[in-house]
Amino acid sequence: MARGAKSNGDGAPLLQSRICCRNVSANESALLKRRHNVGGNYMSILSIRPAAAARRRLLTLSLAALALAPLGGAALAQGYPDHTVRIIVPFPAGGTADAIPRLVAQYLSKKWGQSVIIENKTGAAGNIGAEAAYRADPDGYTLMSTPPPPLVMNQSLYPSLNYEADKFEPVIVMAKVPSGLFVNPNKIKASNLAELLTYLKANPDKVTAATQGNGTTSHLTSEMFQMMAKVKLRNIPYRGSAPALQGLLAGDVDLMFDNLGVSLPLVKAGKLKLLAVASDKRLPELPNTPALAETLPGFESVAWFAIAAPPKTPKAIVDKINADVNDVLREPEVKDRLAKLSGQVYGGSPAKASAYLKEEVARWAKVIKEAHITLK
Predict the structure, then answer these.
(1) I want to staple 215 with a disulfide (CB 3.0 to 4.6 A). Which of 125, 142, 229, 352 is the partner?
(2) How far apart are CA 346 and CA 366, in angstroms?
(3) Distance between CA 83 and CA 70 in Å, rounded?
(4) pTM for the full predicted model
């Protein structure tokens, strides 16, 4: 106890009005000296007031932090990116699934002034690459660019996955490319779809069909074709579009459902024959090639290529990437190069991408269920 302080007999000094930094009235002085019994322990009113003030300050700071929290993501997005961005492509180089993100990455790198690299992580119908992207830090510096399987098909095909497809943050669907039915002219002599169907019905389980891998778009398109045309093919899975096309060109397999992007130049070179396109109607650039839907009403298979971010990536960063990719897709040279891949720009907001992916989940789940397809 400080020298000169008066005691009330229990060792606690009596509070005096001089401890206040202002003049107080007699009533206030009396109040300051009053003791309050709290839970059997004596406590001065001054020991309560600072605690209450501290609580008020804490509440004020908490409310301020909550109010400023949304600004943190926006501030982060303003400085994004400040170093290399990695885009995981869960399929091999050489196919459209690789060509489109490489094109977009090239222009993003110019726009951002940072390197944007493509990393091919292949296998398991895209599941290996998708898992790597799913577990990456949600900071916008690891993204995934992929065709349909990892985001809308695999959850219906596999009993369990090491990632949750619906937890990804959809950023944008960059482009859509219709699929087509390609045959090796040295193996299949049919000159049109009707002749092919006649041959297939007469020779069930004899003709081989290359696919990009089990559970891929080409695999499910083949299954849908067999189901709707009431024919039987033998699917031969490869690890991506490029090796599957190599197998088709070499004559190791007879036909393939593939997107038009990389395969169409091989038709123009006379190495493959395109019997039909899998869009809902004929394409303006291929007016003499029938749509499968003309023979099999309702048949449609379109490969699309989307960018997704790991779960919990801040919305401000997702919106920033979306806006910049939309800018890239508006570049005339990008449009021209996509057109050479038979790509149609899709673009739009993250909400538009999310809604489209949900539609695709439902559509392919129906095909998978009706064709009784399961993978392990």
Answers:
(1) 125
(2) 24
(3) 23
(4) 0.73
